[in-house]
Amino acid sequence: MIEALFEAVLGPLGEGFFQKALLGGALVAIPCSVVGCLVILRRMAFLGDALSHAMLAGVTGGYLFMRLAFGIAAHAAAMLIGSVLAALMTVFMINFISRVSRLKEDTSIGIMYTGVFAFGGVLASFFAEKIHIDLVHFVLGHVLAVDSTDLWVSGIVAGIVLSTILLFYRQFQVTTFDPVMATSLGIPVAALNALLTADVSFVVVSGVGMVGVILVVGLLITPAATALLLSTRLSRMMLLAAVFGLTSVIGGLYFSLGLNVSGGSAIILFCTVQFLVVFTVAPRHGLLAGWLRKRRMVPQQMIEDILRAALRADSAGGATRDDIVRYLHGPHSRLEGALRRMQREGVLTREGDRHRLTEHGRFEARRILRAHRLWETYLHRMGTPDDRVHETAHQLEHVHDEESVDYLDDRLGHPVLDPHGSPIPADFVHATPGREVRSSLLRDGDRAVVVAIGPIAQESPLRLGTVITAGPREDDGDTWTFRDAQGTEIRLDHEQADEVRVEVLEVSRSDGD
Amino acid sequence: MTTDPGSGSRPPAIRVENLTVSYGPRPALLDVTLEIEPGLLIGVIGPNGSGKSTLMKAILGFLKPDLGEVRVFGRPVEKMRRRVTYVPQRGAIDWDFPTTVAEVALMGRYGHVPWWREPTSRDREIARNALETVRMGEFAGRQIGELSGGQQQRVIMARALAQEAEILLLDEPFAGVDAATEQAILDVLERAKEQGKTLVVVHHDLATAARTFDRLVLLKQRLFAYGTPREVLEPELLRQVYEGNLAAFSQLAGEGEER
């Protein structure tokens, strides 16, 4: 068994064609993946695709030139130079067209690369008897049949591409991240863009020979994308991309040999599977991590239920676990976790078997209670059947951001009691000593000094600087009563009370359950 | 063109002289002359398409004017590129880019590091100090995508400070931020000003312009006014510039008179 495995791994290594394929594949995949990092960060993936197709014209052109001028067939260097020239010309045309016309870049890419590809096809078939380009190889690659010329080409390309990226790493980093800033730093952005385009052309040209024109884009972007899922820095992303490029070549070649399938396809398929695996298990942004996070997450509803249970039991020195369980609306399988988390966040403290609210916790609990009772009042007024008011309000109390609660409070006329007759906590967020609020927010016993009076309230006996004490609300909550220092009673309706702005001096603390 | 660098008095931070820039028959800027003293917080206001960003590009030396010139500390802007830096809008940056807060601050030093060398420990120290100045030191190792809006704005400010340029041009730093973030950004601007920087800020919100800036530039192709907020936020002047957008300044006019 182990022997067979040994044989499967080591056996092919003895074969010349396999060694060449491995070496060639690595020489192609590594620079491809590294350049691919910049390509995907600049959203140039489609351009990579275009360049690989444009190559056909270049290869045919280079072949024909050497054949017709010097009578040499299949001159590798000429075909390579032809390819790079064709790629650069295609890029130039793409940029030119999208600059001078109203067409978007992806459109001009589509126009130009299909055009150049078709031109290559016409050229190849017109000179069919002079030219011997294997279109099947061009489309699917021939990684299992690489010769030393291919190796030389790939080696030189890898050398050029990797050294430019290493030399100008910082310049590439900053022009990719923020081109405007790069310009203001004095970095020649246009020259760098041209250099990167040339690099992309080089790696694409050398990649087509291995995996074919259709799949080369996969080699360019998939390892880079896989690396991005695991990286917080560009340098690390490039390193990982190179590793993933290499592993897909190794994995893909064994795979292709074992199943006797096309080498190029096997490499790219391995690449894609590798991506999917990382995409699933990546620690930060992977599917699995997200799923686990969600599972571990304590539902907001439970936290709010605990807060309210603890608030209710506040005067008794805190809530026991049973008190809380009685209050929970959902399943309580994650109760322990929730309690621990709330302690960690400084909302609850534990004293023996009782959970007590901290100052911060009390504030939060009262906020939620206030939201709940305001929602109940709102639902009651909207005509929601009584038996459904509590449940619906319980769902809606999760909408308790400051702005929404303030809106509800004002719209309902700052009610004091909810439909069941329970007190609604005062607006303790705004109506605190030292702050300026509308007098409509004051509750029985609060003291404040008048600082502004709007037109509607002009007729009231209130004057700037009057110190007032709020009395009980009358007429079903529609009339605000105040007394000044002399004991004179002042009565205001909602609109008037809104127009009188006061600075709060002292608030009575008599709300809550 | 009469500026004499040898006259002894400190040259203005930015001097724009008879600047005309056009992209077609309609000029983006027409005969703008403006002198900005160093160490001030300047707001550039004007309606959409009034040439605010063209003025910024001109001060950065990014474009060739049809006529006129921009001088930075008395010298042509082309020779002073290092002294001026641009702080882009938050939305202009790809926050998913794989880079950390510390790296972004260090990018501010790239203009000072020759391409064949690595940033020195001094460069790293300057970048670190810039992060401390904007109170982002403790976030140095974070990936930039994990930051809140206000923190992101502070990181790009730190990058600009690390460039050690004397003049900072900011493109709408207050666009779409909440009150707390706005305060955080103002705080950073104040700190930069304390260090003697000149800050030029493209600003949209007339209502907050008066309390934010030392001086205002009111632009609509031509320069309509440059001076203290009180001088610039004149109802009559605003009416000329913002014709049609009456609502935008009807309350504001009142506010201006109160001051």
Secondary structure: elements and pairs:
The complex is a heterodimer of chains A (513) and B (259).
Chain A: H1 2-10, H2 16-41, H3 45-70, H4 76-100, H5 105-126, H6 135-140, H7 148-167, H8 169-177, H9 179-184, H10 189-211, H11 216-228, H12 234-259, H13 263-281, H14 287-296, H15 300-312, H16 321-327, H17 335-344, E1 348-351, E2 354-357, H18 359-381, H19 386-396, H20 402-411, E3 436-438, E4 447-453, E5 467-470, E6 479-484, E7 489-493, H21 494-499, E8 500-506
Antiparallel strand pairs in A: 1-2, 3-8, 4-5, 4-8, 5-6, 6-7
Chain B: E1 14-22, E2 27-36, E3 41-45, H1 52-60, E4 67-72, E5 75-76, E6 84-87, H2 101-107, H3 121-133, H4 149-162, E7 167-171, H5 179-194, E8 198-202, H6 206-212, E9 215-220, E10 222-227, H7 229-232, H8 235-241, H9 246-258
Parallel strand pairs in B: 3-8, 3-9, 6-7, 7-8
Antiparallel strand pairs in B: 1-2, 1-4, 4-5, 9-10
Describe the fold and architecture.
The complex is a heterodimer of chains A (513) and B (259). Chain A is an alpha+beta fold and 513 residues long. In chain A, 62% of the residues lie in helices and 8% in strands. In chain A, strand 6 and strand 7 (489-493) form a beta hairpin. In chain A, helix 12 packs across helix 13 (263-281). The longest helix of chain A has 26 residues, at 16-41. With 259 residues, chain B is α/β, with parallel strands linked by helices. Chain B has nine helices and ten strands. Chain B has helices spanning 52-60, 101-107, 121-133, 149-162, 179-194, 206-212, 229-232, 235-241, 246-258, and strands spanning 14-22, 27-36, 41-45, 67-72, 75-76, 84-87, 167-171, 198-202, 215-220, 222-227. In chain B, the strands form two sheets. Chain B has a six-stranded mixed beta sheet, with helices on both faces. In chain B, strands 2-1-4-5 form a four-stranded antiparallel beta sheet, covered by helices on one side. In chain B, helix 4 (149-162) runs parallel beside helix 5 (179-194). Chain B starts with 13 loop residues before the first strand and ends with a helix. Residues 1-8, 246-251 and 253-259 of chain B have low confidence and may be disordered. Classes of the chains: A alpha+beta (513), B alpha/beta (259). Chain A binds chain B through residues 41, 167-168, 170-171, 173-174, 176-178, 180-181, 183-187, 228, 231-234, 236-237, and chain B through 60, 62, 81-82, 84-86, 88, 92-94, 97-100, 103-104, 107, 110-111, 113, 115-116, 143, 159, 163.
